[in-house]
Write a structure and sequence with these properties.
By secondary structure, the chain is mainly beta. Helices cover about 5% and strands about 65% of the residues.
Amino acid sequence: MKSPKMLLSVSVFLATASHAWAEGRTEFRWVEGKHLEVPVFLEGKPVEDTRSQPVVPLSQLRLTPSPEAVFGGDLVEVRLYAEDMEGNGRAGLSLDVTTTSGTLESLTDAGRGLYQARVRIDETATGSIWIVAAAPNDDVVGQCQVQIRSPEEWTSVFPRKPIAPTWLSIYGGSRLGLYGYSQEPAQGSSVLYARSISFGLNGQVGAFTPGIHARARFFFPSRDAFGVDAEYSTTTYQLTFVELDDPVVDWIHDFSIGAVARHTFRSRPAAVSVGLQLGIGLDDFLVYRQIVDGESLRLGYESLNTFSFQPGIEVKADLWFGLFVLAELDVGFAQGTTFYRTDIATTIGYTPPKRRALFLYLRGNQISRQALLYDDNGLESGLVTDSSRMVDLGLGVQFN
C-alpha cells in the first residue's frame, strides 16, 4: 500500500498534466526535491523542441538588376534574394553591396529573404559594370552585370537626365510702362492738397514710366529647397500742374529681400518648383500737400517711404529646351497688419542651347498700392492709390 505522501504526489502530477493538456502550455513542479518539466500539448500532441536545432546554412544570393542596360549617371534597382540549403528565404542578414563603378544609395530588408538595393552608376562608366553582394558571416557571394549604354544611343527629344532646378540666377534690364495715381483728401484735412489729384486710373491714360530692374536669387546647392531672393527697381515719371511753374519729376524706388522655401518635382521634360516667399520691402510714393505761404496756400509735394511685410507664392518651370517661366504673387502689409500692396509678375526666359548660363528674359509686372494717411494727431488725412503696369526686358545668368 502506497503512503499518503506518494498518493498526493501522483494526484498533483495527474491534475497538472491534465490542465496542461487542455490549455497547451508547459508546467513546472517540484516533486520530492526534483525540478520536472511537463511537456507542452497542442491538440493532443507534444510540440517538438527545436531550440537545439542548427541554423540551415545559406546557399546562394541571387541578384536581378532593373533595368539591365542604363546610361552613366542612371539609377539601378537591384532585387536580392537570399536562399538557404532548404530553399527558404533568409531575412535579417548583414549584406555588403559593392559595385565596380557606382555608389550604393540604399539597402533595405523587405523580409522573407528579399532585399532591395539602389545603386547610382558613375557618369563616366562605360562598357559594363558588376554589382556584387556578399554575406560575410555565411561566406556566400552573388553578383549581376549591368550594361552601360553609349550616349549616342539616346534618341528621345528630352535630355537623358532629369532637369535640375536653378540654384543661382542674376539678371537685370530696362523697364517701360504706365503709371497711375490718385489722391483723395479727407474732408476738413489741412495736410493734403485740398483738391483731388488723379491720372492714369479709371480709364485715364497713365504717365509714361521708364526705369530699371535687377534681381538675384540664390538657393543653397546642398539644400536647394531654401534660398534668398533680393530685388530692386526704380522708375520715373513727370507731371505738369497749373499751380506749379516747373514739372514734377518723381522717382519710385522699390526694394525687397526675403527667404524662399520651395519643393521641386524633377523629370526629363521639366523641373517644376512650387515655393513660398517671406520677406520685407521698402518703397515710396509721392504725396501732394498744401503749404501755407503767408495768407495763401500753394501746392507742394514730398516722398513718403513705406516699410511692409511681404509674403507670397511662386511657381517656376524649367523646360528641357531652355525656356523657363516664373509666376509670382506677393502681397504687402504696412505696419504689420494693414493691407497695403499687391504685386503680380510673370517672367519668361530663354537660354540658347550653346550658352546654357546666359539667358534673355521678358517680364510683366503690375503693382497696386493703397494707403490711408494720417496727420500728427492720428486723424485721417486722405487716401492715396497708385498702380504701375510694367514690361521688363533684359539679360541674366543662371546655373542649374
